[in-house]
Amino acid sequence: MNIMTFNTNEELDQIAAGIFASLIQTKPSAVLGLATGSTPIGIYQELIRLNQKGYVSFKNVRTYNLDEYVGLPEGHKETYRAFMDNQLFNHVDIDKANTHVPNGMADDLEAACKEYDEALAKESIDLQILGIGHNGHIAFNEPNSQLHAGTHIVTLKEDTRQANARFFNSIDEVPTHAVTMGIGSILKAKMIMLVVRGKEKAEIVHRALTGPVTTEVPASLLQTHPNVVVLLDKEASTKFHG
Ligand SMILES: N[C@@H]1[C@@H](O)[C@H](O)[C@@H](COP(=O)(O)O)O[C@@H]1O
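^ thats the input. predicted complex w/ GLP below
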């Protein structure tokens, strides 16, 4: 596992976006696994800049997002579809038909999960970007005695809802459920980029990457993947330097 620490968020964003850009330059029809949350925003901004300057084109790129809230109405600004449109897709030359976000509004959510898995089964994600939750979750795979391999519906933990409440008017508006890609699909990606920022994540990222591999810390499963690059800001990296 390759762990890199950056003094500034700008440097982290540039290197991370550079890894995406060089993949797309060598493989214009690359398949990207994308994430939401505050962590990837700076990286997406850098990708927008590279796209607008003509260094990289998303014309033939296909994307699959990790997760989506259940029950938010279409167009709600906190749906992960709206997040992706606003933070990346609306600003680059990607064909929206090539962008995929799990459907959290389907009448039959189980069928929608199955459909997402069928689409994923036909693809091979070249590069998957991940953030980490305060409790060690990746996507919305919450700590548990067992984890799911495929796309499934999850009940969000209270601490996850609290952490995400900052994007809503109040905690009561934060959905109680989500649809998430499973750990199996995430680990199938050819390369995984885990990005972690901030001192409040220093402990959990250290535990996930150096502690026991356990479903109680879903990100610890990344230790079993052969090609993970970890990008940390200074504050998130403190436990690695003693
Ligand atoms: N489902 C998302 C995750 O994919 C994300 O990695 C995590 C961390 O979010 P942030 O980057 O805002 O700290 O929270 C959310 O719950």
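The chain has one domain: 2-241.
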